[in-house]
Amino acid sequence: MYQRVSIHIVAWNSMDFLPELLKSIFAQTFADFNVLVVDNASSDGVAAFLRDEFPQVAVIRNARNIGFSAAHNLAIRYAIDHWGDDDLSDRFVLITNPDIILTPTFLEEIVRAAEKEPSSIGSFQGKLLRAFRENAQDEVFCETVKSERIDSTGLAQHRNRTCTDRGAGELDKGQHDASTEIFGAAGALAFYRASTLQALRNGDEFLDHDFFLYKEDVDLAWRAKKRGFASRYVPKAVAYHHRAAYGAENQGWFARIRNRRGKSAMRNWYSTRNHLLLVLKNEGILSGLLALPWIAWFEFRRFVYVLVFETKNISAYFSALKLSPKMLKKRYARPVDRDHRV
User: Fold this and answer.
1) What range defines the domain where residue 16 resides?
2) Strand partners for 95
3) What is the pLDDT of residues 9-36, one digit of tens each?
4) Does residue 191 contact residue 96 with C-beta atoms inside 8 Å?
């Protein structure tokens, strides 16, 4: 029998963090879950590790790296197929990055919160705090430090249509201890009602395949909001996140540039392209006209920056243009009925 919560992890050479995540998952006070790892052709021995150390974990192994979105779509389809005729409004999918550590009551708290909400609340976000490694280069003395610095309390959308992690960079002093509605759940650790994912399904896609990686969580949140689903922040569900590049939620332009330079070239390329796809695919005509001054000013500044400092990322604009017809087709795709199984 497939469990009530399906926990999905996409691994791509993730052995630096995956053991700690799995240890925290199997220390949960809530036990009605199963774990599925989709291995995107890792070369670091993850398959052997799972077989030897966590044989209870189901594994889908891909012959190549098919990307974050497509890999998670495999896992979501697998879960929905195994739930069969179960009520999907009472079944849940937890998408988690390998570099997450759950506190023991995370699942208990977030499931309890979901049980109290109507099915129109389609996703949930816990309180993510930052973790970092001390003596990271030393295998013997390396230690994970769990800080009180906020990583995310959910996605926040701004007038220029960028999205940031709510509360990011702040010291946790209880200022985000009230449950509230948010724009959406951050993809590093997002808890979805399965019926919502099924309602947003487009063929084999839940997350957009064409995003490959980065900002697919924003796209899903935006689509859910347009369909009338809300997202809720659950402060009692606490977890920790190792993040390669940290940034505060409210940053000036120069701080954003410094933060961008600290990220990988691949990440910046996909971030640039996928933001354009997001707006094209999801922005309403009237709301877009009202927000046009903020959108245009932001896009102009970023284009000039890319033109001067990131010339290799100019191709991201051409890639977005090439994908535009496909995004418009998805924009106007007929939504799946909430109770229909494809």
Assistant:
1) 5-242
2) 8, 190
3) 999 999 999 999 999 999 999 999 999 9
4) no
